[in-house]
Amino acid sequence: MRVVPVPQLFDNYAYLVIDEQSSEAGVVDVSDAGPVAEAAEREGVTLVAVMSTHHHPDHVGGNMDLLAMQPDGAMRVFGYAGDAGRIPGITDPLDDGQDFELCRPGGSSGLRGKAIFIPAHTRGHIAYWFADEAAVFTGDTLFAAGCGRLFEGDAAQMKASLEKLASLPDETRVYFGHEYTQSNLAFALTLEPGNKQLVKKARDVESLRAQNLPTVPSTIAEEKLTNPFLRSDSEELRASVRALSGESAVDDVAVFAATRRLKDNF
Ligand code: ZN
Ligand code: FE
């Protein structure tokens, strides 16, 4: 498998997920079909599937345009079964934990993945996990050093969704929906200035962004060390959150909720 990030709109990423055996590719989260079709052409691959993480227009806004560029019935569209009504063009609704194969409709061999239900940013958000390839596509739930806003869920639900992702193998590469890494790290540093891995990651990311390079992928291991939304057991973070929020948050969910509120206003 080869993954090619395709910049979309202002700071979104779509991803071509290429099967090098067949030169077929799926694409995660199409906001703008043109650049995705161009990227597929440039890479010499045939698009066979869209993998939509959630219904927001900056993630599915290009689905119908991309379908219209292909022969009828040439592409699958995956999305969460419980939110099928909001995923344009959906052909293959997926439930939590359901296996799927990245291949053209009627085809049978391609990269194998699994849907992971991770609600809270929206109530129908899923991740696409390719265990054999050690890669996960997390949309607007898990970002490098951050997480999505709570539009259709609460802090407890987001915390549980992030923990599901954090339980994947450490070496799993994390491909996220937005290039928010630099500002996420700036926020994280206000909470854990003493976290050496965080300081190092901020420095690495600063140099990537200075060259206008994407900060994808991260890894599950890196996120556990640097993402404030996976670190409610850090004493330094808990003390900072209490001091900055003025809340006497004690349990993990309350710390998480206070961290999310601080980030909303950062
Ligand atoms: Zn979103
Ligand atoms: Fe988004």
Briefly summarize what is shown:
With 266 residues, the chain is α/β, with parallel strands linked by helices.
The CA-CA distance between the termini, in Å, is 37 Å
Number of strands: 14
Proportion of beta-strand residues: 15-25%
Low-confidence runs: none
Estimate the mean pLDDT confidence: 97
Please work out how many helical segments DSSP would assign. 9
| Gross morphology | globular
Side by side, the strands of the main sheet go 1-2-3-4-5-6
Succession of helices and strands: EEEHEHHEEEEEEEEHEHHEHHH
Main β-sheet, in a few words?
Answer: 6 strands, mixed
Write down the CATH class of the largest domain.
Answer: Alpha Beta
Instruction: Predict the CATH topology of the largest domain.
Output: Metallo-beta-lactamase, Chain A
Structural class: alpha/beta
Radius of gyration: 18 Å
What ligands does this structure carry? zinc ion, fe (iii) ion
Named CATH architecture of the largest domain: 4-Layer Sandwich
The total domain count is: 2
Percent of residues in helices: 25-40%
